[in-house]
């Protein structure tokens, strides 16, 4: 059994397990798209020169592998086996989940490359985005290549590959639906809180949900355990997205890699914005008027962006969002309570849930 109880330690460990399989998978692409994808993943410069650039937190693959260790269906089946046998069984479950971990990481990065085109973001992880280095066409093709590759990798995932592939396909559809709604909301002045919640459940919750459930599926866990892990990931995804929305307004550029007030500059109708408009009283009404006036502009002056952020805070949106993120974390942890998880891995899952909602503003 794992001795890691700290989320950061586990994610570092997961990255070391997944990275070789990621590189093997990306190596299947043609040389040009392989280089573009490797650049996006932080492995090289645009000309192909190897580098050790930032590669993200490995949250989704780390979650898939940690769940596989936590739920391994065979590790505790025989009470007569010694601790070393149980440890080997759990390592086997983690190994079985590596294709799933690679697949969810590829789908995540497909969505990031396409999101950067949609949002016209020029920087991600403190580096120029793919479309800004090459062009939109190249970025679209690189994203498509990663999406296709994810399903190819998962097809080789052993006896539970079909169930895992179906789960990932459904989650990908939901992610795309969430992104489509997000774009639609930028053009509307009548977005409701329920609509916004559904959008964020799809856009972020769906992929974290399948990251958790795919680990359980590939470890051979029974359906009630798979379902509980799916709920854990979905609730954690909502908490993660709400914190991301907070960072999109007040986050430090050193943390986010984006300018302060970036989501307001993009006129994004995030959950805390919509809540502020619906329930923020006079400040919410002023915020709605601000979006009606400034939301469609190409460029909004910094003082106007600050005014919108101040209106959200005055309406109570920032305080509400912080409490809502905490509530979803509690719901996520509650979904794990009766699943009979390995104790050490369970504690690391708890630490991971708190880790994703404690990013610095």
- Judged by helices, strands and strand pairing, the structural class is mainly alpha
H/E topology pattern: HHHHEEHHHHHHHHHHHH
Distance between the termini: 35 Å
CATH homologous superfamily title: Farnesyl Diphosphate Synthase
Q: Count up the domains.
A: 1
Q: In what range is the share of β-strand residues? A: under 5%
Give a quick summary of the entry.
With 361 residues, this protein is mostly helical.
Could you explain the architecture of this structure?
- By secondary structure, this protein is mainly alpha-helical.
- It has one domain (7-356): Farnesyl Diphosphate Synthase (Orthogonal Bundle), CATH 1.10.600.
- The chain is 72% helix and 1% strand.
- It has a two-stranded antiparallel sheet.
- The two termini are 35 Å apart.
Task: Produce the secondary structure layout.
Elements: H1 7-26, H2 31-40, H3 59-71, H4 83-119, E1 123-124, E2 127-128, H5 130-133, H6 136-154, H7 161-185, H8 193-218, H9 223-250, H10 253-256, H11 262-265, H12 271-279, H13 281-294, H14 302-315, H15 317-336, H16 343-356
Antiparallel strand pairs: 1-2
Helix pairs in contact: 1-3, 1-4, 2-6, 3-4, 3-8, 3-16, 4-6, 4-7, 4-8, 7-8, 8-9, 8-12, 9-15, 12-13, 12-14, 12-15, 13-14, 15-16
């Amino acid at each position: 059994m794992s001795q890691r109880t700290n989320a950061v330690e586990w994610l570092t460990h997961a990255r070391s397990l997944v990275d070789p399989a990621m590189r093997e998978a990306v190596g299947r692409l043609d040389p040009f798209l392989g280089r573009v994808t490797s650049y996006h993943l932080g492995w090289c410069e645009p000309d192909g020169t190897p580098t050790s650039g930032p590669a993200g937190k490995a949250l989704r693959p780390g979650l898939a592998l940690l769940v596989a260790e936590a739920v391994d269906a065979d590790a505790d089946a025989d009470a007569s086996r010694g601790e070393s046998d149980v440890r080997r069984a759990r390592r086997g479950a983690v190994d079985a989940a590596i294709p799933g971990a690679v697949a969810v990481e590829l789908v995540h990065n497909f969505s990031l490359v396409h999101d950067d085109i949609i949002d016209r973001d020029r920087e991600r992880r403190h580096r120029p985005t793919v479309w800004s280095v090459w062009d939109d066409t190249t970025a679209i093709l690189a994203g498509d290549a990663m999406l296709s590759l994810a399903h190819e990798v998962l097809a080789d995932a052993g006896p539970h590959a079909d169930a895992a592939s179906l789960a990932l396909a459904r989650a990908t559809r939901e992610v795309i639906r969430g992104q489509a709604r997000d774009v639609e909301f930028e053009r509307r002045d009548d977005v409701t809180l329920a609509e916004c919640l559904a959008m964020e459940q799809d856009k972020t919750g769906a992929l974290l949900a399948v990251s958790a459930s795919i680990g359980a599926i590939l470890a051979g866990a029974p359906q009630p355990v798979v379902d509980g892990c799916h709920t854990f990931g979905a609730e954690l995804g909502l908490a993660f997205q709400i914190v991301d929305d907070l960072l999109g307004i007040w986050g430090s550029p050193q943390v986010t890699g984006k300018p302060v007030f970036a989501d307001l500059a993009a006129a994004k109708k995030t959950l805390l914005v919509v809540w502020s408009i619906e329930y923020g009283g006079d400040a919410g009404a002023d915020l709605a008027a601000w979006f009606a006036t400034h939301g469609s502009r190409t460029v909004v002056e910094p003082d106007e962006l600050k005014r919108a952020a101040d209106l959200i805070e005055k309406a109570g949106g920032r305080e509400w969002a912080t409490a809502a993120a905490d509530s979803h974390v509690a719901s996520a942890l509650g979904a794990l309570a009766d699943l009979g998880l390995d104790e050490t891995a369970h504690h690391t899952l708890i630490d991971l849930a708190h880790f994703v909602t404690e990013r610095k503003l």
